[in-house]
């Protein structure tokens, strides 16, 4: 009975203290510096991924629409 009460009290304290400890208003956060080299490569990866996705979709359509010479088995 004492262990159950102790466990319950510890859980209540932990659940109550967690938001208070997580809130830290005394720290002033500054934005990170931006590297000029990183801005030059901003849009290039998106175009490559879009072209790769389009090629995969087209390849999937071609494979699905291709006529196989072997007929598919049917149930009697």
UniProtKB/TrEMBL annotation:
Listed transmembrane segments: 46-65
Keyword terms of this UniProt record: Membrane, Signal, Transmembrane, Transmembrane helix
Signal peptide: 1-22
Domain of life of the native organism: Bacteria
Name of the featured protein: Ferrochelatase
Record has Transmembrane as a keyword: yes
């Amino acid at each position: 009975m004492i262990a159950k009460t102790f466990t319950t009290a510890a859980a209540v304290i932990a659940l109550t203290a967690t938001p208070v400890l997580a809130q830290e208003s005394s720290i002033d956060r500054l934005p990170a510096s931006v590297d000029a080299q990183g801005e030059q490569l901003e849009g290039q990866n998106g175009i490559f991924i879009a072209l790769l996705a389009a090629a995969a979709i087209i390849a999937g359509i071609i494979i699905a629409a291709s006529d196989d010479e072997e007929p598919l088995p049917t149930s009697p």
